[in-house]
Amino acid sequence: MEHVLRLLETRDSVQVSELAQAFSVSEVTVRSDLAALAHEGLVARVRGGVAALQHGQSEVGFDLRLRLEVERKRAIARAAAAKVGEGEAVALDASTTAYYLALELRHKRELVVVTNGLLVATALADAPGITVLVTGGVLRLSAMSLVGDLGTDVLRTTRINKGFLGARGLSLERGLMDLNPDEVRIKQEMADACEQVYGIFDATKWHRSALLAFVSVQELSGIVTDSGAPAAEVESWRAAGVEVTTVDPGPSEPPPIRPRDLRRTVRNDERYG
């Protein structure tokens, strides 16, 4: 029921009756599918339907977002990885697309990866030839990220070749945007520390806006997105001097991990540590 997860990325809840009508199936069938999603820990059951698992700032949790637009994100990750040379230092934020990029970077050698994403760091932890530098800070559970002054202090003393940052929305007037002020701040610090900055996000983000901007059009070296991005807007960004790479999504593949298992570990550490 990926359609349900997409709806919950922009809405608080979805009702059984509307799903039954949309897909021309019985409410019994819909309830069975929603129960499966709830059993996997991806949604919360509410009266008449399901709701997103949210952790402040109206954000959908990392594990749910990881299951959205998987084919697009994998294709974007492959194209972004091709821009990374061995021996470089790169910054990855805590976005789900950056997580998929981390998986693509595992075969690189003599690479230094700076990240505020715990799942990104975990994806590279046992990769030979890769050194992972995790910024410090306060844990944001919904994004499995570290934010705050400790992280920005590290970035201010680090010079990085390329940065790859996800976004909630974008516009030519404001640049790349996101929701959470703490997350936006560390994205800004990452961008400032990088010689080149690339936006990595799927086509659904092209129709969105967000509260806060973190990198302007002038500071952006390029965007890697999928072929579903609106052609007219892509051309406008290219005309503004931003290299836009569009890729076709590959075959359907399941998400590779269950991030909530790590989240349980974090909760236990917080409880007993």
Walk me through the structure:
β10 and β11 form a beta hairpin. The chain has 273 residues and is α/β, with parallel strands linked by helices. The strands form four sheets. A seven-stranded parallel beta sheet has the order 6-5-4-9-12-14-15, sandwiched between helices. Strands 1-3-2 form a three-stranded antiparallel beta sheet. It contains eleven helices and 15 strands. The protein has helices at 2-10, 16-23, 27-39, 62-65, 70-81, 96-104, 118-124, 149-156, 181-193, 231-239, 259-272, and strands at 13-15, 43-46, 49-52, 89-92, 111-115, 130-134, 138-140, 145-147, 160-165, 169-171, 175-178, 194-200, 212-215, 222-226, 243-247. It folds into two domains: 2-53, Winged helix-like DNA-binding domain superfamily/Winged helix DNA-binding domain (Arc Repressor Mutant, subunit A), CATH 1.10.10.10; 65-247, Rossmann fold, CATH 3.40.50.
